[in-house]
Amino acid sequence: MNTLSVPQVISTQDLLKHWQGHRALTRRVIEAFPEKDFFEFSIAGMRTFAKLTDELLAIAAPALKGIVNRQVLPFTEKETENLTTKAQYLERWDRDTKEINDNWEKLSIEDFSESFNLFGQYEFPIIQNIFYFIDNEVHHRGQGYVYLRALGIEPPFFWER
Amino acid sequence: MNTLSVPQVISTQDLLKHWQGHRALTRRVIEAFPEKDFFEFSIAGMRTFAKLTDELLAIAAPALKGIVNRQVLPFTEKETENLTTKAQYLERWDRDTKEINDNWEKLSIEDFSESFNLFGQYEFPIIQNIFYFIDNEVHHRGQGYVYLRALGIEPPFFWER
């Protein structure tokens, strides 16, 4: 399939690069938290950054796998419930980075406009599902920036990917 | 130009809809702040949500206008420095929503891969500039969610656009 010669708003490879760039920044935010604060600090009764990371990990790689296999699975944070150190979270993060790269290769450009019922709850075109993965991560990471600031820690530069 | 028959990761119209959906949610976040807190509340010495909104307004419509006209202008928050009420911010927000829609029509699909030196500082393909507008808004809005929670206010549902 030759799509390179056709003008695109964004290519599939550039969208993956965009997503993984955000994931690399989120990884830096996890790293920036002191071990204890990653699991314990929060503001106004919100989730800790570890809990927010549970959600991000429960979405990205599993959701993309579901899309690629057209297999509708419920949302679950069960996979990370036994992680107790930042190092374990980062290891899982990196494993998922590879899994995302591998599964991305299985997407064709035609797939992005097809509908998929994400977690059996959100029936949208696949491109919208993927934008949701990215936006939701940016949203929660923005909250992580406030936690870091409140802890007196300089967050990573937003442009750094 | 017939691009509709060609598979796309995302169409130009759907990308606009995605962006404006986020802008509609940010508008709801502005609305959710009590008048005084919009201008005064912050956490850990960060900018108030009014100041963050200054930045968002200084980017979105002016940057897209610059892109469409291929006119490199410096970043400035001067345009909103005289706004003193939430109502004025919302009015400016709505004016910019229309301006964005109008200028978007002037973008061709070929433009998205062309390079543009945003604010004379960030030389990237136009699609990356536009993703930056969206991501930066989601990032700062996520911070606004923490402010609202800290104020005891339920933020709008993330899915609401």
Automatic annotation (TrEMBL), chains A, B:
Protein name (record): Damage-inducible protein DinB
Annotated family: Belongs to the DinB family.
GO MF term list: metal ion binding
Residues reported in the UniProt entry to bind a divalent metal cation: H140
Residues annotated as signal peptide: none
Organism whose genome encodes this protein: Flavobacterium humi
Keyword Cytoplasm attributed: no
InterPro entries: DinB, DinB/YfiT-like
SUPFAM superfamilies referenced in this protein's UniProt entry, alphabetically: DinB/YfiT-like putative metalloenzymes
Coiled-coil ranges from the UniProt annotation: none
Entry keyword Metal-binding: yes
Keywords: Metal-binding
